[in-house]
Amino acid sequence: MTAVFDHYFDNETEHLMRLALREAERAARHGDVPVGAVIARGGEVLAAAGNERELRRDPTAHAEIIAIRAAAEKLGGWRLAGCTIYVTIEPCPMCAGAIYMSRIERLVYGAVDEKAGAAGTLMDIVRDPRLNHQVQVDSGLLATEAASLLKQFFASRR
What we know:
By secondary structure, this protein is an alpha/beta fold. It is built from 5 helices and 6 strands. It has a 6-stranded mixed sheet with strand order 1-6-5-4-2-3.
């Protein structure tokens, strides 16, 4: 079951999501959809990234994928056990699959993605009981700020 942050979340969790929001803002500055991700373990930031699809001309250069690759490189292996990923918007199917495959333990995301959300909205890849690993999911942290970044970005493109 998804735990939805309402009025309380600890300072460290909020701080890490604010770092993800900064990455999302950075992505928007170079023309990418403003999505940011941070991966941490035990309070240590292992990786932070924003979307870079436009920048790299790569359809897989989502913030989550870039951050997962960087964290795996820093740790020296693909298993990100004990890690939490903080993402400004609910991951898409590709990113949810990468979160599952990397064995990340916890996903914290801000805004729900009603068009492509794969962590409980359209599908739930990260908690599918048929798979050998499930991810703890907490949603709604700084969702208003995350959704506002996306709305402003797309409004400026119209």
